[in-house]
Amino acid sequence: MGEESHSIQVSGMQFSYDAIRSPLFFDFNLDISPRSRCLLVGANGSGKTTLLRILAGKHMVGGRDVVRVLNCSAFHDTSLVCNGDLAYLGESWSKTVGSAGELPLQGDFSAEHMIFGVEGVDPVRRDKLIELLDIDLRWRMHKVSDGQRRRVQICMGLLHPYKVLLLDEVTVDLDVVARMDLLEFFKEECEQRGATIVYATHIFDGLETWATDLVYVQDGVLNKSQKLSDLNELKNNLNLLSVVESWLRSETKIEKKKTQVNSTPQPKKSSPFDSSPFRSSRHMAYYR
Ligand SMILES: Nc1ncnc2c1ncn2[C@@H]1O[C@H](COP(=O)(O)OP(=O)(O)OP(=O)(O)O)[C@@H](O)[C@H]1O
User: Fold this and answer.
1) The domain spanning residue 35 has which CATH number?
2) Complex-level ipTM
3) pLDDT for 11-23, tens place per residue?
4) Measured from the CA of 43, which atom of ligand 1 is nearest?
5) For the chain, what is the HEC assignment?
6) Number of folded domains in the chain?
7) 36 lies in some domain
8) Residues lining ligand 1, CB < 6 A?
9) Is residue 273 in a domain?
């Protein structure tokens, strides 16, 4: 098989967490081309994490043709994840770990034990990541700081040379040096190995020159999907932070206007599938 024209292709996707509420995504379409470093932006609750989890094959949505990654079905073709072509780095560790309070990890494992426990890894790549993330292999995982734990998580997630990498706010706990080094590493991965990266974040420092593409999701709707170089606001000397801030602020105003004019809560979107037994819902979806 030659190089795919799209690394990620979503066609007419519908997804709902809850059968009672209207779907979060309805007839959602998205194309992401190979080698792109795509920023996924949007307000809290707009659907970024859900979208990344769907792309990572963690929710079953529709048939095999709806969510395609590297020309395979993200959910059905489990080899995508098993062979390491599709990698997802999300908040799972820090959430489970963070909410466990005094018990971040149940056993007393060293960073070395965790990292060297991942099998089939190129030792050169492993050493490079350990150095890049400045990991001390003697760290005891139950005693380290959030940022140190996060470094080990990131290292483990990147050990296999993925083709598509989905990142959900992974740099929040990192100091500025670790963050910038990691972003540079990701850039090399796209340029040298042809990897594709989708990165959801609220931290925009340094991303103007890092990202190639931008996807803006508003309330489950694709508001923008374009090359960063085509973004007119950025040409007017504004930084990405100000541009995204102005988009999100105007979103809030629209919402407020709606509330003033009409105080009765309206369903967000109606769907011809609402009464269909085939709509995606919490009952239909399979969770990994
Ligand atoms: N497990 C769940 N069950 C039901 N609803 C959920 C679940 N997870 C998320 N949602 C809802 O889906 C919507 C999208 O959430 P999501 O986490 O995808 O947003 P997000 O853009 O990643 O937000 P943030 O920027 O805060 O991380 C929100 O309205 C949220 O309340």
Assistant:
1) 3.40.50
2) 0.98
3) 999 999 988 888 9
4) 25
5) CCCCCCCEEEEEEEECCCCCCCCCEEEEEEEECCCCEEEEECCCCCCHHHHHHHHCCCECCCCCCCEEECCEECCCCCHHHHCCCEEEECCHHHHHHHHCCCCCCCCCCEHHHHHHCCCCCCHHHHHHHHHHCCCCCCCECCCCCHHHHHHHHHHHHHCCCCCEEEEECCCCCCCHHHHHHHHHHHHHHHHHHCCEEEEECCCCCCCCCCCCEEEEEECCEEEEEEEHHHCHHHHCCCCHHHHHHHHHHHHHHHHHHHHHHCCCCCCCCCCCCCCCCCCCCCCCCCEC
6) 1
7) yes
8) 17-18, 24, 42, 44-50
9) no
